[in-house]
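Weekly modeling sync, notes
Attendees: AB, CL, MP (scribe)

Item 1: holo prediction request
CL wants a bound-state model with magnesium ion before deciding which constructs to order. AB pointed out that an apo prediction alone won't tell us much about the pocket. Agreed to run with the ligand included and paste results into these notes for async review.

Input as submitted:
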Amino acid sequence: MLAQLRRPAQKAAGKHSQRLIVTVGRAGARAALGRGSAAAWLPTTVALAPTVPIEPKRSFSSSPSHVGKDLTGMQEMSGGELIFNMLLERGVETCFGYSGGAVLPFLDAFTSQDANGEAKIKFISATHEQCSGHQAQGYAKSTGKVGIVVVTSGPGLTNLITPMQDAFVDGVPLIVFSGQVPTSAMGTDAFQECPATELTRPCTKWNYVCLDFNQLPWAINEAFKIACSGRPGPCHIDLPKDIVSMRAQVPNSIFRYAPKESYMDAPPMVDTRQIQKGIDLIKNAKNPIMVVGQGASDCHELVRQVAEKANIPVTTTCHGMGIFDERHPLSMHMLGMHGAAYANFAVQQADCIFAVGSRFDDRTTGMIDKYAPKARAAEANGTGGIVHINIDKSAFGKVIKPTVPIWSDCGLALQAMLEGIEPSTEPSNMADREAWLAQCQEWKTEHKFDYVRAPNGRIKTQQVIEAINTELHEKKIIDDREVFVSTGVGNHQMMSCQFIRWTRPRSFITSGSLGVMGVGLPYAIGAQVANPDALTILIDGDGSFNMTNMDLATVARYNLPIKIAIMNDSRQQMVWIWQRLFFEGRHISVDNVNPDFVMLAKAHGIEAMKCEREEDLAGDIEKWLKHDGPMLMEFKVVPDICLPMVAPGKALDEMIMLKDRDAIYGTSDEELGDMKFEGLAPS
Ligand SMILES: Cc1ncc(C[n+]2csc(CCOP(=O)(O)OP(=O)(O)O)c2C)c(N)n1
Ligand SMILES: [Mg+2]
């Protein structure tokens, strides 16, 4: 891998080591406006100016508004200033990151201030680059805007691999800028050198190392376009120190106002034949259900209109939570491995599955061979099947083969379907639909999320989350202001899905696909920075919190009023359960030796309290949520199993239910249940 990098890098180093000042010509400006290609950029119109020493001076000031700006002529600036000014034109207000030698020439541009002495782009410094990456994801997940991360070379960049892969699989728009050693040192195993683009290739939609000053504007345009177009995802630009330090005459026209619409690829044209096929299938189905994923985050109003007009029950994935208000009578809440039994029953019994912006992640299908048997049978006799809207063509058939694939932006497709979607008024069909909706309601009542209370007035994670939910809804907090909830990964995460009634898209900030423990605190920081007036709540596991709790320093530094709840069960309980069920109760590496979380928070100057009794729960939660400023509440909880649960190798509707709890979990930690499991533990 390194050998591959060395050859071009060393060649490039030779080519550029003499050049200190260049003039970016018109071809460059063309490409910067998004109409050129890398090839159009390269040196034909680059004129070498006399060599001068690199000076740490800044001469260019940019404003995010194009109005009244002189776009003719040229100005001298460094590579770092060029990137910074392009970010401003793209409306970037906040970046996340960490310092380091190789990135200093770029970082220096962030000291730039407006007329009021405010930073033109706010720079949020974290305690670890992984935290910066997850913060930028929290920012992007909660707003739909691109998250920007700036880190140094070597370890700065390697610490970002997890956030990049997390963003890749969760479809989060992210642009990472990493410093790199000077081109003359690349490939020599120089101090803090790593083969950056080689490392990030598999976990980005696109990456690039700028070996020439002239490539900078083009690379930035590409990164914004690719991160935001189609299914969003991460891009990475590696910035050798000499390229970013270099000063050049740059055409002002590069800094033309650039809203999202100017650089994003247009969505695919809606294919009206596929739309009609989808409408026909849904209209005539007797037992349809909508499965809504995060791809529909920006068209929640249309999701509601379609569901109501077609009179179809709606279930969501964990990233789709809140796109369809869970208080709506048609809501079947979350489906999947720890989803609602009623949602899973409905999917397996449906003759038509209408998937909107979801990708059939294995956590939502159970065993593929046994998925949606009724819809498959209906497909075979032409009366139903699977209608799948997705903007990512590769999602079709990756896991589940659709009867009708609709390659489209979800909003455009739903808009096109809205008019014709009402159910067929054939009397037999009407009666079937009524019966289906009644059946769904019956399942919903019979199998609502529940748990067994802890003895002796002690509390459980489910109970704490239920009480937080009660406070949010009964006091109408969730109606009066925006509320974001982030989590770590484990039982507390799934229990948050189960016991909070979600009402708005993008309000649940979690690591759905990579399942990264430790994301909760930095995600919450990113969401709070992006939405300063919102109530941001972190519901974390003790194990997950231990992975990044040093980022309490970031909460304190920026005085972010995040409300942190630690579900302290002294265990990595989700994995503890798998050991109990699938490894005959042999436990290893799942006990947590925890710090005193209250003292830890106080050491950072953050208010903190502990709650362990049922009678204190409601009052403590009220106090905690009302606190002016950040506050940590440690809930000392009795560990439990998260049910329902689709065991591995089982169909979506073959769940371990609450009534099976004693048989599998036993009645105490020492006493195992009798139920034996076959197959592998979940991963
Ligand atoms: C970085 C990382 N390492 C390991 C895992 C595997 N894993 C999944 S859940 C879990 C336990 C989580 O413990 P905790 O945060 O305390 O949550 P709980 O299940 O106790 O609520 C582990 C170790 C993971 N998801 N992420
Ligand atoms: Mg735990």
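Recorded for review: The pocket of thiamine diphosphate (ligand 1) is lined by residues 488-492, 515-517, 541-544, 567, 569, 571-575 (CB under 6 Å).
Action items: CL to compare against the apo run; MP to circulate these notes.
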